[in-house]
Amino acid sequence: MGKASVILYITVGILVLFLVSYSPKKKTDHHGGGHNNQHHRLKLRSSFNFKPTRHDPIPFDPLVADMERRREDKEWERQHIEHSHPDLAAAATHEAAPGHESQPEWEDFMDAEDYLNDQEKFNVTDRLISLFPKLDVSPTDGFVTESELTEWNMQSSAKEVMHRTQRDMDVHDRNKDGFIAFSEYEPPSWVRNAGNDSFGYNMGWWKEEHFNASDVNGDGLLNLTEFNDFLHPADTNNPKLLLWLCKEEVRERDSDKDGKIGFEEFYHGLFDTVRNYEEDNHNVTHPYHDMPEGPAKQLFSQLDKDGDGYLSDVELLPIISKIHPTEHYYAKQQADYIISQADSDKDGRLTLAEMIEHPYVFYSAIFNEDDSDDDYNFHDEFR
Q1: pLDDT (tens digit per residue) in 165-207
Q2: pLDDT average, residue stretch 138-165
Q3: Which positions ≥6 away from 71 have C-beta within 8 Å?
Q4: Measuring CA to CA, which residue among 142, 138, 154, 150 is closest to residue 355?
Q5: Which end of the chain is more exposed for a tag (fewer CB within 10 A), N or C?
Q6: Which of 383, 282, 271, 373 lies closest to 333, judged by CA?
Q7: CA–CA distance, 125 with 238 (Å, rounded to integer)
Q8: Cα distance between residue 219 and residue 196, in whole Å
Q9: pLDDT tens profile 36-60
Q10: Measured between alpha carbons, how far is 231 from 52 in angstroms, rounded to an integer?
């Protein structure tokens, strides 16, 4: 960090301390946020599920992320034993006293939550002061922009995703050679137990074509990076896997089974997904806009490069990231929300003072909504 940056942060720090010292006193809480602590207890989430139904927000604070990661690992281990080794799970339940099996888990987690809600150990204001220089990096100018906050979220998300991938790889890599062969991989239990008519099997998400598309070098094995792409194809840079994802969309949306997507199939399926992703990207001067189907026809025409009246898998490539949003989409969404709530002067960026003024915006992912009041209503956009 340059000399100018050090001077800048010292100056900002002195200013913040001055403002805090001379600001009107309010009833303090465990986090130095200036609000009654009974309304702002932080709670670690317990939302792991082998069959995910939503995209949870990434915790802003790496320390909180580490706590939740450890908690998720415990829950994952418990569910993994129940799904993959039901006999062991039944034996463990039979041997334990009634109602006793859940107690050790909660004891471990309550220790972490007590830590988060102890002002001497975890002070939200102090955490924001320490994290601010790590966000303000491009450039180091005393402000956190939307792009800097998005990149921060992306780095946190990448760490979470790779941690889960490594966990899954350790399970499936039966010969422990650091690679996954197709013969070693089994679909998740929620797919296996649902039968061959389930969503997963019907689309081919767990079949050999998917595996081969993820295998960049074609050696019949997936390394950690390839296996991560296999589990999270929307975030890949592998063109084979992106094309496979488009083929699966054609397979799912092709109601008349002619191997391509006509306008009606596009209009009554894919278009709503794309429009919800980016609703304002249509040209209002297009002649089709006088008709109810105008925006859909405009987009369909743009995608139909060969003009045959149908969309092939290749022609879906320009919109595949809108059909299957990437981690960057969610990271930016979360950054935009935080800035909209904490940017007091509405200049589109955050100062350290603004962050300290709105501390719970940054910890909303673990804020206990049941205890919230009118001043800090929990925002459930990312739950």
Answers
A1: 999 999 999 999 999 999 998 766 655 555 555 444 554 566 8
A2: 96
A3: 44, 45, 46, 108, 109, 112
A4: 142
A5: N
A6: 383
A7: 42
A8: 28
A9: 334 467 777 765 565 555 677 888 9
A10: 13
Instruction: Show the CA angle centred on residue 253, arms to residues 222 and 206, nearest 5°.
Output: 25
Give the separation between CA 146 and CA 136, rounded to whole angstroms: 11
Q: Which two tokens stand for residue 285?
A: 């001067």
What pLDDT, on the 0 to 100 scale, is given for residue 3?
A: 59
Is 310 in a helix, a strand, or coil? coil
Q: Which two tokens stand for residue 278?
A: 């980016």
Tokens 């006999």 map to which residue? Answer: 87
Q: Which residues, 6+ apart, have CB-to-CB distance to 85 below 8 Å?
A: none
Q: Which helix (H) or strand (E) holds 361?
A: helix 359-362
Separation CA 262–CA 21 (nearest Å) = 66
Angle at which helices 124-135 and 3-22 cross, to 10°: 150
Cβ count near 2 (within 10 Å): 8
Collapsed DSSP state (helix, strand, coil) of residue 180: strand
Give helix 146-172 / helix 327-342 axis angle, nearest 10°.
140
* DSSP for 58-97, written as a single string: PPSSHHHHHHHHHHHHHHHHHHHHHHH-HHHHHHHHHHSP
DSSP 8-state class, residue 176: -
**First vs last C-alpha separation in the chain:** 37
Within 10 angstroms of residue 359's Cβ, the number of other Cβ atoms is: 22
Main-chain phi, psi angles of 349, to 5 degrees: -150, 165
How much is the average pLDDT of 116-142? 93
Query: In whole angstroms, how far apart are CA 17 and each of 28, 53, 119, 229, 352?
Result: 16, 43, 17, 46, 11
